[in-house]
Design goal:
The structure holds 2 protein chains of 2 kinds. Chain A is α/β, with parallel strands linked by helices. Chain A has 11 helices and 14 strands. Chain A has a 6-stranded mixed sheet, sandwiched between helices. The model of chain A is unreliable at about 285-295 (pLDDT under 50). Chain B starts with a helix and ends in a 6-residue tail after the last helix. The longest helix of chain B is centred in the N-terminal third of the chain and has 42 residues, at about 95-135. Chain B is about 70% helix and about 0% strand. Chain B is built from 16 helices and 2 strands. In chain B, α4 packs across α6, α6 packs antiparallel against α7 and α11 (about 215-250) runs antiparallel to α12 (about 270-300). Chain B folds into 2 domains: about 1-35 and about 165-400, no CATH class; about 40-155, no CATH class. In chain B, β1 and β2 form a beta hairpin. The chains are: A alpha/beta, B mainly alpha. The complex binds adenosine-5'-diphosphate (ADP) and magnesium ion. Magnesium ion binds next to α1 of chain A.
């Protein structure tokens, strides 16, 4: 299975949300990382056929997804960024309605199984309007998964989940990921760090990095520095430099700095993580490649 | 369709509105009840006995004439006895006399006055034709129109000596504009809800990315709405028939519509029951238009308030205007050549709201000359309504769940 984005651009009235996206995906979990406003949701909506790109097309195994129409939507599971359902339907009824719409197995057994899967079985007769944020989210996940989709789009799926639920959700995703293309858009690195096969970094509507997770992490290997200091210095430095975070370990504080070159004497290289990758590329102040010195 | 019905009605607001609508309807029923006229059973028995004696209208007339004249004379001679003797139908002979006189008057109306009035219409039309033909440049369309009138009225309407009940009041109490306003508002609310619920709840991205088929979903939602509207209209129509029977004695639905005085000059050969049916169908058609246009607006705007307000204006405003001009067509000083009357008739031909007040299409010879073809005004209105329905149905269907540009 090959999903190919070709020259996808999207322009809202004055704003260019996506600029010439070209990328090819195969089975695996893809982390679409980017800050708010990078264009992730726009791209997800284009893939799901909810909005039309200004230019470009998407192909599944060489076939245009727009002309595939129903056949494409059949293999699709979509959890949008802010999904909602009908407040007066029960969880069970929502599952039933959407499995009918998705032309999936809508037997009671299957639906209960799915509800069990997302831990909503006991609340299946409660009205959706009475669900908590986390329950709503989990129902959205169950709806997205009910047709056992080949292509699964998850747009910030963990928003509103508590840490335990996040872990649970991560496990669900890695459990079902075999032979699927899973597109996981998020700005929360820890959600995808351990499960993403590949990482795509999206910035201002453009792909700035794409590759295997470990390779992408390796790319910034020599740019991550640690510096042991005290609380006050660390605080001052992080306030003034957005390319640094302070990590407390016992009495000392370790400053973790992203920098092309050694930021100052006494700093030493350390292993990079996906978090560092994110810091490296999306340092909000835009001074990511500057060489700062400790004042 | 089960889920679509639930989508539509699982809302406190909708249920409250439904209850309000029902309360409104009960109000009309109570009003009708207050003005009810009891069916006179003795009279019914009398005319049914008379009809058993003879089928022939002339002999019925002669019989009733003789009987009522004789009783009237007797009464003046012997009124004491008339008030004290038990009658055959009423409680006294005097009652019987009044019943016979009423029967005679009714028989005269059905067997003499109405047919004569129609003959007068035919004669007038033929005179107009002759007059026009004698002119130097005869107006062909006037000749043709009058010829059409002659054809339409030169038919035997099978009148019977039976009571029609008070159809006019039945229509008056159950087909009033206030009820129409309420129903329009309610149906618009339902439609907007059905077609914007996915947007307002945030479900649309999921719904529209399912393979279920957008056409299928549109049609399901559309026909759920139509089924709901038809159910309401059918129930109300059924109540009208039942209460017309109970309160106003409209119990012979197979009688020709022309036996009702208001419809004396109806050019179509239809029965009272058929009139009820046509009325139901026209109402339904109008509300299908309401649903179709509101659905298209909701699909285009994707916003509840926008679609709702435009739709309300589109349907309520013309109804207010047409009702305003309708006032000039009722009452004692109807002037058929007045400007207002002409405006009313013009509106009736082109605005679907005309279908809500059906009776004025049926009480006179009302044909339009469209490029030499004469078609009833109501046909013109129905045609326009159907065209608009098809137009907006197509727009709605094509725009439904279309990817946003
Ligand atoms: N309907 C819209 N009209 C105008 N601008 C929009 C619209 N939707 C999104 N945008 C803009 O497009 C950019 C990308 O948005 P989005 O795809 O939601 O980003 P992300 O999901 O990565 O946070 C943002 O700058 C946003 O303001
Ligand atoms: Mg987003």
């Amino acid at each position: 299975m090959k999903l190919k984005f070709e020259n996808i651009s999207k322009r809202y009235k004055t704003k260019k949300a996506l600029n010439n996206i070209n990328i090819e995906l195969e089975e695996g979990i893809y982390a679409f990382l980017g800050p708010n406003g990078a264009g992730k949701s726009t791209l997800m909506n284009i893939l799901a056929g909810i909005i039309k790109p200004s230019t470009g097309s998407i192909y599944l195994d060489g076939q245009n997804t727009v002309s595939m129409d129903k056949d494409f939507r059949k293999v699709l599971g979509y959890l949008p960024q802010s999904p909602g359902f009908y407040p007066n339907f029960t969880g069970y009824e929502i599952m039933k309605y959407f499995s009918v719409l998705k032309e999936a197995d809508h037997s009671e057994k299957k639906i209960n199984e799915m509800l069990e899967f997302v831990n909503l079985y006991d609340d299946r007769k409660k009205k959706y309007g009475a669900y908590s944020g986390g329950m709503k989210r989990r129902l959205g996940i169950a709806v997205a998964l009910i047709n056992d989709p080949q292509i699964l789009i998850l747009d910030e799926p963990t928003a509103g989940l508590d840490p335990k639920e996040r872990i649970r959700f991560r496990n669900i995703i890695s459990r079902i990921s075999r032979n699927k293309i899973i597109i996981y858009a998020t700005h929360i690195v820890s959600d995808v760090e351990s499960i993403a096969d590949k990482v795509i970094l999206l910035k201002s509507g453009e792909i700035i990095e794409f590759g295997d997770t470990d390779k992408v992490i390796k790319n910034v290997e020599n740019k991550i520095w640690l510096y042991d200091t005290d609380v006050d210095t660390a605080e001052k430095y992080t306030l003034e430099h957005s390319n640094a975070v302070a990590v407390k370990s016992g009495d000392i504080v370790k400053l973790r700095i992203v920098s092309e070159t050694k930021p100052f004497e006494g700093a030493y290289n350390t292993d990079s993580t996906l978090e560092d990758v994110y810091m490296y590329y999306f340092n909000e102040s835009g001074q990511e490649k500057e060489n700062d010195s400790l004042v | 369709m089960k889920f679509e019905i639930k989508k539509l009605f699982a809302s406190k607001l909708i249920i409250i509105c439904l209850v309000l609508l029902f309360g409104f309807f009960v109000f009309f029923v109570v009003n009708a009840y207050k003005s009810r006229e009891e069916v006179s059973e003795p009279y019914e028995k009398l005319i049914s006995d008379i009809s058993d004696v003879s089928d022939d209208s002339n002999s019925v007339l002669a019989l009733l004439k003789e009987k009522s004249e004789q009783m009237t004379t007797d009464y003046y001679l012997n009124s004491e006895m008339y008030h004290s003797t038990k009658g055959e139908y009423g409680s006294t002979l005097a009652d019987d006399m009044f019943l016979y006189r009423k029967a005679y008057n009714d028989a005269k109306k059905y067997f003499k006055t109405f047919p004569q009035n129609r003959i007068r219409l035919i004669n007038d039309a033929m005179l107009t034709i002759i007059e026009e033909e004698s002119k130097e440049n005869p107006d062909k369309s006037i000749i043709a129109l009058n010829q059409k009138a002659v054809d339409k009225y030169n038919r035997q309407i099978k009148m019977e000596l039976k009571s029609t009940g008070d159809l006019f009041n039945t229509l008056y109490f159950f087909d009033n504009t206030y009820w129409d306003y309420a129903l329009i508002a309610f149906i618009i609310m339902l439609t907007v809800r059905m077609f914007t619920l996915d947007y307002s709840t945030g479900a649309y991205q999921i719904v529209f990315s399912t393979p279920g088929g957008k056409k299928k979903l549109f049609l399901k939602q559309y026909f759920t709405l139509i089924a709901s509207a038809v159910t309401i209209i059918a129930l109300v129509s059924l109540c009208q028939i039942i209460f017309g029977y109970l309160f106003f004695g409209v119990n012979n639905l197979s009688l020709p519509l022309q036996m009702v005085e208001y419809f004396e000059f109806c050019p179509f050969t239809i029965s009272i029951g058929e009139y009820y049916l046509i009325k139901f169908l026209c109402k339904t058609l109008f509300f299908i238009l309401v649903i179709t246009l509101t659905a298209a607006l909701s699909i285009i705007f994707r916003k509840t308030m926008g679609a709702m307000s435009i739709s309300l204006v589109v349907f309520v405003l013309p109804l207010m205007i047409i009702t305003h001009y309708f006032m000039y067509t009722t009452g004692d000083n109807v002037n058929t050549i007045s400007e207002q009357y002409r405006i009313y008739k013009a509106l009736q031909a082109i605005t679907p709201q005309g279908l809500l007040n059906l009776k004025t299409y049926f009480n006179a010879f009302d044909y339009l000359n469209i490029l030499g073809v004469f078609i009833p005004r109501i046909t013109c209105c129905i045609t326009i309504t159907v065209i608009v329905i098809i137009l907006f149905f197509t727009i709605g269907l094509r725009r439904f769940a279309k990817p946003k540009r």
